[in-house]
Amino acid sequence: MIEQYLSAKWALNADFHNQMAALALRRMASGKTPFVAGGEIAGPYLAWDDEDDDRDAVASTGYEWLSKAHTDKGQVVIIPIVGTMTRYGGLCTYGSETYASWIMEANQDPAIAGIVLELNTPGGQVDGTEMLGEVIRQSEKPIVAFVTGMAASAGYWIASQADYIMLESETTAEVGSIGVLATHYDYTGFLEKEGYKITIIRADGSEDKALFNSVEPLSEAVLAETKEILNTIRDTFIDIVKAGRPGIGEVFTGKMYVGRDALKLGMCDGFGYLGDAVAKVLELAPAA
């Protein structure tokens, strides 16, 4: 996954980014992978018997192992979106593709009355976020975004497309960080210290190949082009949030907002716990 860390564009909480970048760089400087690779991705909502021979099939579907609240009006499926968001999963989390497939499967499941997205994420990769947000927006069954700790950046992008946003606390839950960034790591000094000198040779006519890399200084032209791309993504981000939250205030500088301030600015609709989020889904669900 190293190419994701080095070249991807991120809608990610800045504090989280800086902490993880420092950790990754320290590991890489000592010759290790950026993060410890997990052989299995499993969370509190997906488990299997250690003797289960069909583990691959379980991991590839997962929908039937999601927690579901059983009520008189039908079931409410709880989809956990926890940790750093990527398109295909990693960093001990599922991917946006999987979340989207679960939402679509819930829409096809006659037993399901609605969906709760349980969010505690600093955001993540831009790639896949717009797709997941659109799947949430198009859901025929009501979706409540329930924020426990934070829904930052890409996390708020998708939360803004839900029918209702509920925060667990007025003071400890937070949302925001509406912005986009890309990180360039310059390893030239480190490589020179280690005795390496790297030369990139490009074929004739390939002068624009891989100009955003970690072993060459970024030119002003590449910096300007990268910023233009990030600005375009940010504009899309803001347009989508405004469409999902028409009454939202001016909250687009990348700042995070705690619950009580988020409510005043139209970034959320109320407060409660998971049971309250389930009740709100049932309230939004059409009568049978």
Write out key terms for the chains shown.
288 residues, alpha/beta, eight-stranded mixed sheet, three-stranded antiparallel sheet, 19% strand, elongated, disordered N terminus
Tell me the layout of helices and strands.
Elements: H1 2-7, E1 9-12, H2 14-29, H3 55-61, E2 68-71, E3 74-82, H4 96-108, E4 112-121, E5 123-125, H5 129-138, E6 143-152, H6 154-159, E7 164-167, E8 174-176, E9 181-182, H7 188-193, H8 220-244, E10 256-258, H9 259-264, E11 270-271, H10 274-284
Parallel strand pairs: 3-4, 4-6, 6-7, 6-8, 7-11
Antiparallel strand pairs: 1-5, 1-9, 2-3, 8-10
Q: Can you give a write-up of this model?
A:
The chain has 288 residues and is of the alpha/beta class. Helix 4 packs parallel to helix 5. The N terminus is likely disordered. Helices cover 37% and strands 19% of the residues. The longest helix is centred in the C-terminal third of the chain and has 25 residues. Helix 6 links the parallel strand 6 and strand 7.
Q: Note the run of SSEs as H and E.
A: HEHHEEHEEHEHEEEHHEHEH
**Beta-strand share of residues:** 15-25%
**Strand count, sense and closure of the main sheet?**
8 strands, mixed
Number of β-strand runs: 11
Envelope shape: elongated
Distance between the termini: 46 Å
Q: Overall mean pLDDT score?
A: 85
Number of helices: 10
Compose a concise summary of this entry.
With 288 residues, the chain is α/β, with parallel strands linked by helices.
